[in-house]
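Ticket #4471: structure export looks truncated?
Reporter: QA, pipeline team
Priority: medium

Steps to reproduce: submit the single chain below to the structure queue and open the exported record.
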Amino acid sequence: MKFGLRLRGGLLATLIMFGAPVIAPVGAVFVSSSAFAQTVQSISVEGNRRVEVETIRSYFRPGPGGRLDQAAVDDGLKALIETGLFQDVRINRGPGGQIIVSVVENPVIGRLAFEGNKKIKDEQLSAEVQSKARGTFSRAMVQSDTLRIAEIYRRSGRYDVRVTPEIIEQPNNRVDLIFVIEEGAKTGVKSIEFVGNNAFSSYRLRDVIKTRESNLLSFLASGDIYDPDRVEADRDLIRRFYLKNGFADVQVVAALTEYDPEKKGFNVTFKIEEGAQYRVGAVDFRSSIPNFDPSSMRVYSRVNVGSLYNVESVEKSVEEMQIEASRRGYAFAVVRPGGDRNFEAHTVSVVFNIDEGPRTYIERINLRGNTRTRDYVIRREFDISEGDAYNRALVDRAERRLKNLDYFKSVKITTEPGSSSDRVILNVDMEEKSTGDFSISGGYSTTDGALAEVSVSERNLLGRGLFAKASVTYGQYARGYSLSFVEPYLLDYRVALGLDLYQRQQLANSYISYGTKTLGFSPRLGFSLREDLALQLRYSIYQQEITLPGYLANCNNDPLSAAFNPSPAYAAANGISLASTNGLGCYSDGEASLPVRKELANGKTLTSALGYTLTYNTLDNNKNPTDGLLIDFRQDFAGVGGDVSYLKTVADGKYYAPLVSDIVGIIRLQGGILTKVGSDLRMLDHFQMGPNLVRGFAPNGIGPRDLNPFGTQDALGGTKYWGASLELQMPFWFLPKEVGLKGAVYADAGGLFDYQGPTSWTTTNEVNAPGCIPSTINPSSAGTCTGLVFDDSKVVRTSVGVGLIWQSPFGPLRFDYAVPLTKGKYDRTQEFRFGGGTTF
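Actual output as written to the record:
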């Protein structure tokens, strides 16, 4: 930091101002106490221009008897100096022992400006500095502001910043204050190293922390910017990670940072002492509360004998036990975990001690920092309120819930003593952040082609905790829009109400001969049954229709029509020669499958369905999981009004497990059944499968298919499917972690079968009817209703493949190359597949 002066007049005064020590003003006179046997009214003031005489006199408070003594004058002198209003204060004796206070007022800042700042806006800097336009100029304040500006830049990763305050003298004791800033280049983290880690590789530990190494794409993120607070927080993240995995003795001894002038960045080294890995040797429950059965708490324990000692499991057990004890009427019960370590056997015996805690009540809950979010939005996350018994477990849960809202940069709940010894005050300190998002997304996939999306969303609408989103999608084969709204607390209950309105259009492409248009509305209710178990109830109503190019639906069996183009069946039944059409009639230019044309003839169809989803989730990370289980079970019943009826049941489970050398194993099992209820099933109601079941196959490439050799041979779908997949994901150890690349090898197996849709069309003389011929004729010949159908439940599709996964700044991208090993006779394959997108 350096100071520079841009002087225009008043040179001597400015030099004296910056050269005089603040705590010992030039010319201050101290005289004996006998000279100050005066009253406050006998003080005269000289040199003041803006500050009133009475204001200056008010700093001199008389002692006993209303007289000013030496101590009162000394205190007044110090108080005047500390105001920062004056650059010089002198106290002299006048005639008759009169007190004369001579002051030189600090200048007034006429203009405050910043020069050279490109990365941080003037508005942000103005809000951070204490010096203000039309405020008093103070050298000490300018020094503090200079340091503050430099600190702001350092927090944004620019440690080479230089800030120079310049002062321009103006008439009438005014100055212009200009902060000249040399921002310098961004100072990033060039390397992150770990010392003492034997159980987990450095590659794995880099996943745990928030700090990232600089790379070519760092300009799209901020994790590589050196932030000492973030590095310190990373120490705790590493420690928590080890404690979660059984290392009860772990210590993250230090986080050493060193600036490398050659690389112009920081090297960060975490020094770790792992200790031994422990398992749970025994779990016991004890209580000092009369008539309280401690063994009844066993059902709420997440700690099991033989499992790895996990501090998070212990903490969650304590929380659930303490809440359950409160429900049973023991409002002041406290659960304290204890553990005895067996250093030879490497086991921990966990004991949950249930004791009567101090009888403390919550006197008040103070909310501070929520300038936008309504108080009730915050208070509803608490399961306790003013007047209730103080329960630390419920307070911790409330803090966790507030952080999960993602409305605040930080949330901290602290306590302070109340008005009496049995009262406590909760202070909730928050710092709000922006909750609105505007995004433009673009991507490409082998199924939907090029795709773009524009969306606007708000997570905390009007400060009421509401979620709203509007998006528009336009792509090569997919288009549409959607509107979503969520009220997370319906009628002040912890029940989420969601409303979705959507319109989607899927165009015909190389995988399907037809397009679909869907317009729908879906209200839903979400319940959190436990932290790892959620239930969603929904109702869906949507209108759907099929569209076809004219040449795929041009059969016309009306001989009076100018567009007469008969099907072979009609021609055969009516003795019409097809010589003019090479004997194929309307099939000469191809024809969509009968179920597709029948959907077209049916026109718009309305589906009304009730459904639910039960989700069990123990994943360690929802975006990039390495451990845990995710199971979805869904059922939808269509037939609550509308034109169709069915029961659709789907189950999907994924299990993630860390193996060796940062390799993660994934097992996935999935299956579904479509059951006919009342009316016949439509082709559109059937499951359609491809790479979503077995990679290496084209979209709609698996299962029953129309075999008409002169048609489009559309996939018709099935009512039953199953799938199994085994995948290993591994990092590229020779690449920096921050690149976000990893590879995958996998094997898939699955099947789709049992088509139960339409296979005939009884009318043979209506316009566009395909015209069925007797079933005794070879079903694979031209003119049949469907050449139905290759549909063999014994065919198991299998494939093996490799994948490249990139967690890029542009969003998740994945490339797959899979080779089918076994397939159905008429299945369609697609060995290479790519999908991804971005938001910017």
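Status: closed, not a bug. The export was complete when the record was re-opened. Leaving a note from the reviewer for reference: Residues 139-155 form the longest helix (17 residues).
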